[in-house]
Amino acid sequence: MEKIIEKIKKLLNMTQENGASENEAMVAALRAQKLMAEYNINVADIETPDDSMTIIEESFVCGKGDKWKVRLAAIIAKNFRCRAYFIDKSKVVFYGYESDAKIALDVFKFLFTTGNKLADRCYYEYYKKGENTRGVKNTFLLGFCQGINDVLGKQCVALMIVTPEEVKKSFDEKSANWKTVQSTLKTNNDIRAFEKGRNEGKTLANSRSIEG
Q: What is the crossing angle of helices 22-38 and 2-12, to 10°?
């Protein structure tokens, strides 16, 4: 078991800050989570004292458009023991223990970039066929988020992942006077686009590249 724990620690250390690419960081984080679920290893088993003492903020500017980012950020934050919020509708911030926040940001950045590319591809497929493209990208992206949540949610339950009380209390104090801004996506009723996005999300979150 010690070898597995060391392997998980090495995977979690593969962040962009430590020289990994977005894809490498995302794959490493998801692979570590899968190993933890497979071997019934709790987050506390791999933490160091420093991890439990330092709360930080990791941010990424992704623009005021792409409203689906709010849903994606919420999913990633929940699965990596953080809180997520936005500044000026353009900058996403992950708030949590140092290792959690950094990993959450790496996973978010990769999935956000990849999701937009796949949604554009879906849009042009509809466009070339002369089909209605109104709302198709957002519908695809809602499915994409659902697919990611389908996979990560199961692992979250299996690992009993919860945001640490210290992080929740600190964030609640920080955000006590903040206002909540509603973000509505314009979608359509094309179940094909939704299911296509959902399958793409599942494939990324449960890719063969993170097996082993």
A: 150
Closest CA to 76 of 56, 92, 52, 98: 92
Q: DSSP character for 19? A: T
Rounded-to-integer distance, Cα 180 and Cα 190, Å: 29
- With cut-offs at 50, 70 and 90, classify the pLDDT of residue 4: confident
Q: Of the given ranges (7-11, 54-58, 90-94, 205-209), which has the lowest mean pLDDT?
A: 205-209
Q: What distance in Å separates the CA atoms of residue 118 and residue 196, rounded to the nearest whole number?
A: 10
Contacts from 18-21 at CB under 8 Å and sequence distance 24+?
Answer: 20/106
For residue 74, the SS3 value is helix
The residues, any chain, with a CB within 8 Å of residue 204's CB and separated by 6 or more, are: 111, 114, 147, 148
Which neighbouring-strand residues pair with 93? 59, 85
The average pLDDT across 75-91 equals 91
HSE-CB at 21 with a 13 A cutoff on CA atoms is: 4
pTM, two decimal places = 0.81
Asked if 104 contacts 82 with a C-beta cutoff of 8 angstroms, the reply is yes
Q: Can you tell me the distance from the alpha carbon of 212 to that of 34, in angstroms, rounded to the nearest whole number?
A: 9
Rounded to the nearest angstrom, the gap between the alpha carbon of residue 111 and the centroid of all alpha carbons in its chain is 7
